[in-house]
Design a protein that fits this description.
Number of strands: 7
Helix content: 25-40%
Number of helices: 8
Strand content: 5-15%
Structural class: alpha/beta
Radius of gyration: 19 Å
Order of helices and strands: EEHHEHEEHEHEHHH
Length: about 220
């Protein structure tokens, strides 16, 4: 992989440097190694008992915490779900501010190459098990930006997608239907996107590097 995708020049803020601690000691900092984990993702095995795993999956399905990451016009459709008219909270769905607190990543709208880089970093920082919903036609085939030079047309080539919600843009009712479908998949024990990402990590990473030319972060950054 390294031969096919040469490492681009490292930005100044990511180069090794020597800093002085408050007590006067001088230490060397390597941001790419010290700020990120160097371990690749691993497959998360199921519980030792089918009954226990079923209980876990039921609990996971009834507690979906969405990472608030609006990439385009789809983010607007997420807002009504928080209001009393649709009230997604009654379905166990709520929004969180950071990847560390979330288990559902909703890619809402068009996705540019520059944004994909941030999406990958956010996804890899989410704890397992985690799920991805592609919201809108842009994540399926590029939508109205299908022939744009800087827009991703198929999200599932870069991240594992559990559910697609078609439309441009889909109404809040469609979102709720998509979330209910995701719940069904989780309860059935088939929402294995995180494990799929770990198993096919080299394939996903090769696709990511093929479009992100200024790759200046570790292969796995969480």
């Amino acid at each position: 992989m390294k031969d096919d995708f040469p490492t681009p020049p490292v930005r100044d803020e990511l180069k090794k440097r020597v800093v002085e601690t408050p007590d006067g000691q001088k230490i060397e900092i390597d941001p790419l190694k010290d700020y990120y984990c160097q371990s690749a993702p691993t497959v998360m095995p199921a519980a030792y008992s089918k009954i226990v795993e079923g209980l876990f999956n039921w609990a996971r399905a009834e507690s979906l915490w969405i990472l608030g990451f609006g990439t385009g016009c789809g983010a607007i459709e997420m807002r009504p779900l928080m209001t009393p008219r649709f009230d997604a909270y009654r379905y166990g769905i709520q929004w969180r501010p950071t990847p560390r607190q979330s288990n559902l990543f909703v890619i809402s709208g068009y996705l540019s190459v520059k944004t994909l880089k941030r999406v990958i970093r956010s996804y890899e920082q989410m704890p397992n098990p985690k799920y991805v919903v592609g919201l809108g036609s842009c994540t399926i085939n590029g939508g109205m930006y299908f022939d744009s030079y800087n827009t991703i047309t198929r999200l599932d080539q870069y991240l594992p997608v559990d559910v697609y919600i078609a439309g441009c843009m889909p109404r809040p009712e469609a979102l709720l239907a998509g979330f209910e479908e995701l719940k069904r998949i989780i309860r059935a024990g088939k929402a294995e996107g995180a494990n799929q990402y770990a198993e096919q990590f080299d394939w996903y990473k090769a696709n990511q590097k093929r479009v992100i030319h200024d790759w200046d972060m570790p292969d796995y950054n969480w």
